[in-house]
Please model this.
Amino acid sequence: MFIAKVVGNVWATRKHPVLEGKKLMLIQPVDEISLRQTGEVQLAVDIKTGAGVGDTVIIIDEGNACSQILGYERAPVRAIIAGIVDSVYRKGKSRKYH
Model:
């Protein structure tokens, strides 16, 4: 799992059946306190959180876990948005996002 910033969305008129009705979002991993970019932009599926561009989110980044969450053993998914982050506290430092 990691923290990321939603930086965009993807519109797809044709999707794998397991992705029907789910949002495809572009996310970029960030340091949870400074919000500095720590990785490349990647695709994540938003099942129910309603995350949008600019939100800070927590990402499940493991294909098998994503397949189990989606209920489809061979789901073509690597990352799922698990929640929208309100605040983080780490090593005496904290950061509020909303």
